[in-house]
Write a structure and sequence with these properties.
The chain is of the alpha+beta class. It has helices spanning 7-32, 59-77, 85-91, 102-117, 127-132, 148-155, 187-201, 295-320, 346-382, 411-429; strands spanning 33-42, 46-55, 98-99, 163-167, 170-174, 207-211, 214-218, 227-232, 241-247, 250-256, 261-264, 267-270, 285-292, 323-330, 333-338. The protein has an eight-stranded antiparallel β-sheet. It has a three-stranded antiparallel β-sheet with strand order 3-5-4, covered by helices on one side. The protein has a two-stranded antiparallel sheet with strand order 8-9. Helix 7 packs across helix 8. Bound molecules: adenosine-5'-diphosphate (ADP) and magnesium ion (MG).
């Protein structure tokens, strides 16, 4: 209907009324939305937290559905639960298609993609080696390094090309009966993404999810600032941030060798295994952090970069279009290598600026001390007072052109000088 002269005022009134109602509704949402926080434990000992800007009455629903989602990931993908989907696939020696859930197939498909991108540095079929190095269910201490022949034997079971995945219907297939998979390096990231999807389905846009140190942020905090998360300083015992990162619709995941390792004959062995050699990675890289759009990618990439080290790691990150930070530890000194687009470290800059200011203060102090020392030596050698202590009198001269200040060396002469100066002052005033 085309508006005529009679309907036009009614329309504009309706528009005003509509805008007013919209404004009121927004106010109402702003008033009822609050900061909800849920914390708990999943996957055995992994802590998680979800902070969301949501209606207070959503709290219970949020709590139970987050716990349910995380539990479902654990029941499907854990190698610690004997009847999980992954454990049953690992126990099977069949080379036929093995039906799995959509979720497990999705994670394996993503893992295979990252294996291809990283030329096998990331490889979920590494499980037999993870078990051999006692980083799986059996964590009993190794008293000697595994035999080379044992490593070679296990390497024959490993290789992402020996594993196939399909989504419809979801299933996995091994080409060698002894092949086993381990999703530990990607499942936490996937769990974060799953919870994010669930929150979005509940109509929430502003939240921060963390599962075992892997994080994903959406929107902003209740005060409209960005979500901020810390990258831990990867030194044993140092529970402090190395860098604070602002995340906006992004995920951040980290891998490290400073928490999960064992020591044998004074040497440290990391839980990250190089699937190409069969040995734990052995380089100075102590931690990696990756920022990506989704947390599944960030988690797997952080492990892949941990295997590849600084040069290969940066190349992979650039190829995959993710931001990466690689920290190497040489004698407890951290060296950072990062992709050009990784956020700069404000903490480090502040420390550097603070450091250079302190250096300046130090240099000035040394010069000052040297000057005082030089003057003191001059006094001692010349048996004379420091001229500067005459308060400028040194600049004056007696009629015989000797500096008046030299008189100050003896108290009696100093009094004579003062009298003489006073007399001269009176004469000139007259
Ligand atoms: P974190 O558990 O500290 O976040 P990661 O995400 O790097 O660490 O996962 C490390 C785990 O992944 C190891 O404990 C092992 O189970 C498995 N793993 C080790 N090496 C590899 C690898 N090269 N590719 C895939 N998974 C690996
Ligand atoms: Mg990982």
């Amino acid at each position: 209907m085309v508006p005529n002269a009679r309907t036009r005022p009614a329309l504009s009134q309706m528009l005003v009324a509509f805008l007013f109602l919209l404004f009121q509704a927004q106010l109402l949402v702003a008033q009822t939305s609050t900061r909800l926080e849920i914390t708990g434990t999943t996957m055995g000992v992994v802590g998680y937290s979800v902070v969301a800007v949501a209606d207070a009455d959503l709290a219970e629903k949020l709590k139970s559905s987050v716990a349910e989602e995380l539990e479902s990931v654990n029941q499907r993908m854990s190698t610690y639960i004997d009847d999980s989907e992954v454990s049953r696939f690992n126990q099977s020696t069949s080379t036929d298609w093995f039906p799995v859930s959509q979720a497990t197939a999705e994670v394996v498909q993503k893992a295979q993609k990252i294996s291809e991108l990283s030329n096998g540095a990331f490889d979920i079929t590494v499980q037999p080696l993870v078990a051999l190095w006692r980083f799986s269910k059996d964590k009993s201490k190794l008293t000697a390094l595994p035999d080379k022949s044992l490593i070679a034997e296990n390497l024959r079971k490993v290789g992402y090309k020996k594993l196939q995945v399909r989504l419809d219907p979801p299933a996995l297939k091994k080409s060698v009966p002894a092949l086993q998979i381990d999703l530990s390096a990607i499942a936490k990231g996937y769990a974060v993404d799953l919870v994010a999807r669930q929150l979005q389905a509940m109509g929430l846009d502003n939240f921060l999810i963390e599962v075992g140190g892997e994080v994903r942020a959406s929107g902003e905090k209740p005060d409209h600032s960005s979500w901020r998360v810390g990258i831990e300083k990867p030194l044993p015992g140092a529970r402090e941030p190395y860098q604070i990162i602002e995340l906006y619709h992004q995920a951040l995941a980290s891998s490290g060798d400073y928490r999960n390792f064992f020591e044998l004959n004074g040497k440290r062995y990391s839980h990250t295994i190089d699937p190409r050699t069969g040995y734990p990675v052995d380089h100075a890289v102590t931690a990696t952090s990756v920022i990506a759009k989704d947390c599944t990618t960030a988690d797997a990439m952080a492990t892949a970069i941990m295997v590849l080290g600084p040069d290969g790691g940066i190349q992979l990150a650039n190829k995959a279009g993710v931001k990466a930070l690689i920290l190497s530890n040489t004698n407890n000194q951290l060296l950072a290598t990062k992709t050009a687009n990784f956020p700069s470290n404000e903490l480090e800059t502040a420390l550097e600026e603070g450091g250079s200011f302190l250096r300046l203060v130090g240099i000035v102090s040394v010069f000052f001390l040297l000057a005082v020392l030089a003057m003191a030596i001059g006094v001692i050698c010349g048996r004379d007072r420091i001229k500067g202590s005459c308060g400028g009198i040194a600049a004056l001269e007696n009629p015989d052109i000797t500096p008046e200040c030299s008189l100050c060396s003896r108290a009696a002469e100093c009094n004579d000088l003062k009298k003489e100066l006073k007399k001269r002052q009176t004469d000139s005033d007259v």
